[in-house]
Recover the amino acids of this structure.
């Protein structure tokens, strides 16, 4: 039986990291594995969302279904096989 | 829509307001107010990530897409600050800025995007009607 693919949605600037699509499919049981799978096909993706200490970047929020990945183990967060993962860049700024 | 954004900006007074503009086929259909969760909301904005997720889901359900992001500058010019440029991660969105620095509110719209992949972001004003 073919394993189910996880849909990863990438609104905003992140789509540039995967060749212009705002949605990719990937495989993996944890967020780290899902990101590694995308990185294999789209080198450079991971460093846009993960810093050099292995933490999700400040300006990125990741939801696995409705669960905030930061409250669920960060990169170790489990990803169900039929999950939709949203990697959402922050909307922020201000006068100063 | 301009009135809705202005009303939001006025209600927030000296704090920056923020929200999204949903649309279809690139044309705006509605505004979605969001909470500003920045730690210094008088000079910064950060859209509540939970509300941002809910807004994306709501736009999906209505077959809409994100067309813009708005915020106010209560006491400064309606032009993207260095912070606005550094923290602009939506190259396809129209960034709408409201300034309440004078009695007459000013509303401007911009595209904030790199000219080429990987290059510095530049700011381009977009004319708005009404």
């Amino acid at each position: 039986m073919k394993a189910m693919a996880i849909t990863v949605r990438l609104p905003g600037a992140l789509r540039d990291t995967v060749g212009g699509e705002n949605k990719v499919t990937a495989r993996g049981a944890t967020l780290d594995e899902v990101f590694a799978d995308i990185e294999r096909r789209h080198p450079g993706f991971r460093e846009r969302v993960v810093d050099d200490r292995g933490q999700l970047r400040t300006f990125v929020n990741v939801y696995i279904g409705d669960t905030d990945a930061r409250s669920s183990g960060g990169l170790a967060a489990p990803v169900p096989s039929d999950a939709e993962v949203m990697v959402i860049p922050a909307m922020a700024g201000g006068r100063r | 829509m301009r009135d809705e954004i202005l009303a939001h900006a006025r209600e927030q007074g000296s704090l920056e307001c923020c929200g999204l503009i949903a649309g279809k086929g690139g044309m705006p259909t509605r505004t979605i107010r969001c909470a500003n969760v920045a730690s210094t909301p008088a000079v910064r904005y950060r859209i509540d990530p939970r509300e941002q997720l809910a807004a994306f889901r709501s736009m999906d359900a209505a077959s809409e897409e994100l067309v813009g992001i708005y915020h106010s500058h209560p006491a400064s010019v309606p032009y993207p600050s260095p912070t606005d440029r550094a923290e602009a991660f939506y190259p396809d969105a129209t960034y709408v800025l409201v300034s309440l620095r004078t009695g007459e509110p000013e509303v401007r719209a911009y595209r904030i995007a790199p000219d080429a992949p990987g290059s510095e972001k530049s700011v381009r004003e977009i004319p708005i009607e009404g």
